[in-house]
Amino acid sequence: MKTLYIKSIDGCTDFQDKIVHILSGGIIGVSKISAARILNEIHNTFYNYPDIKKIFKLESNNLKISRISRSVLDNAIRRYNTDIRSMAFAYFLVINDSNTHYVDMTFTYETLNNISTEALNIPNGTKGEYADNHYGGGVNTSYRNGTLSVILLNSKIDIGDFTYAPNNVNYARFSTPAELLSHELLGHGYGRVIGSPTYRHEDAIQMSNLYWRVRGYNNFYRNGNYHGTQIILNKRIANKIPPHFIYH
Question: What is the per-residue pLDDT across 16-25, written as a single tens digit (0 to 9) for each?
Fold first, then answer.
């Protein structure tokens, strides 16, 4: 018999099978609510590409993103450019990874999942607002045999290193959840587990910028001045694709 536990999210009681830690490998939501939100943001990434969007699904447990075969990926992305192919390839790699990547997608007013508080070494009952205030909308850290990412769905933190490409003037804006997922999970998380020497900074900034290009926004990019090491990346470096994510 499966053990059931009750998770209370701001007064909303959610019954859920306690199987999160039994599952392994790929992208796993810390709850069914998070998993549905993860899938939604992956779909938002490929909003304009329905033939790619449809290959991303949840397993029947409603916690884990379903594995994708290489032939299904290749068929879905074959007619698109390098940016779009590489973003899809990045998700393909993480979804099929033998390491486990937990994701807690939450609002500032919701309570962080216990997996998140354990991984971040903060008290149980901490609200998502903590992650927004301390990490600027999202964070990725090592957890068990993989990583844990917390992604804010309503981040209110101004990120001041968005550069308007035509005149190189920086301006501040909020991060969107789909951008944060690309930045934290793909840029930091996958880079972390494969030992990329640039996972702490360049990989994550480059994945933010790749996300925006995939969504059709080419007139601005993040230069990294408000991130991590605060090393400013020039336009050419900031808009590269991490080599492990270049579709081949």
Answer: 445 566 788 9
- Contacts of residue 53, defined as CB under 8 A and 6 or more positions apart, other chains included, come to 42, 43, 46, 47
Specify whether the CB–CB gap between 115 and 142 falls below 8 A. Answer: no
Tell me how far apart the alpha carbons of residues 85 and 93 are, in angstroms, rounded to a whole number. 12
How much is the pTM? 0.90
The 10s digit of each residue's pLDDT in 56-107 is 999 999 999 999 999 999 999 999 999 999 999 999 999 999 999 999 999 9
